[in-house]
Amino acid sequence: MDSTLKENVPHGTPQKPMAAMHFQVPAGSACPDHFFVRRHWHDNVEMIKILRGTFKVEIDLEEDFLEPGDICIVGGGKLHQLRGFTPGSIHDVFLFHPGLLSFAYNDGFQEEVLAPWLEQKLCFPQVIRKNSAEYKFYGRYVSELIDLGLEAGEDWYFRCKMKLLDFLYQGWKGGYLLKKAGSPLSPGEREMIDRYKRTVSFIEEHFSKKLTLDDIAGAARCSSPYLCRFFKNMSGYSPVEYLIFYRVHQAAAMLEETTKNILEISMDCGFDNTSYFIRKFRQIMGMTPGQYRKTGRVK
């Protein structure tokens, strides 16, 4: 259950930028032992509710454990990772783009509640324990949002949007929103996160071009040997491995969504040798590009 590190997968649509998802890891699945999503980030706010199993969440390099019933709220742009430790783990997720709550008219609610929250001067706590005093408040709203999103009934999006606005208002009124203090990250930790994001963003923005390790290191503002050690430690991939991984997944999307032939797709994704492209595609996706296209498989 890996994803690309700067998550560009749309959750919802431009008209309805939110989504609810249910994750269960049964025996016989691709990940029978545990759920795992590597460090990544996206613009959405992500609410996670643990239903079964023990998980370890990492948000901007800070780790915490989650037990059944616990809730985790990841702010937009936060580097995060989630790992399950229990076979058969289950959790639900609700994601939404924070910008959907902003108003064009700058009224008192926008100034006092929405703007500070959008600017992350006010924020949700990152972890809400099932036995905590604030759990009744957060548990109610997060559960209702997940249920509405998963049911996807009539007008579910409008109902979720109104519930999010009420969630923010009641959280502000009841003192449940936290005023952001100074960053708990050291300057060195902040630079690690920024360098990681610079590296991933550069790879994903330039994957179709001829790239060398020195090109990527230049964008990361460090030496090539240091980048290899640093990126492997942060992501589990070397920079070149991640570049190939990302190119292959972009090629898979093009195989599903276009009628371009394999040679065109390989060239468009930065491969100058079709045989090498096919070999790497088979290695990562478990089948050849031609087989993948025939299956019509959605990743």
TrEMBL record:
Which residue spans adopt a coiled-coil conformation according to this UniProt entry? none
What InterPro entries is this protein classified in?
Answer: Homeodomain-like_sf (IPR009057), HTH_AraC (IPR018060), HTH_AraC-typ_CS (IPR018062), RmlC-like_jellyroll (IPR014710), RmlC_Cupin_sf (IPR011051), Tscrpt_reg_AraC-type_HTH (IPR020449)
- Recite the UniProt keywords alphabetically: DNA-binding, Isomerase, Transcription, Transcription regulation
Instruction: Supply the PROSITE patterns for this chain.
Output: HTH_ARAC_FAMILY_1, HTH_ARAC_FAMILY_2, PROKAR_LIPOPROTEIN
| Superkingdom of source | Bacteria
Question: What are the GO MF terms of this UniProt record?
Answer: DNA-binding transcription factor activity; isomerase activity; sequence-specific DNA binding
Q: Per the database record, which ranges form the HTH araC/xylS-type domain? A: 197-295
Which SMART domains does the UniProt entry name for this protein? HTH_ARAC (SM00342)
Please state what the protein is called. AraC-like DNA-binding protein/mannose-6-phosphate isomerase-like protein (Cupin superfamily)
Q: Which organism is it from?
A: Catenibacillus scindens
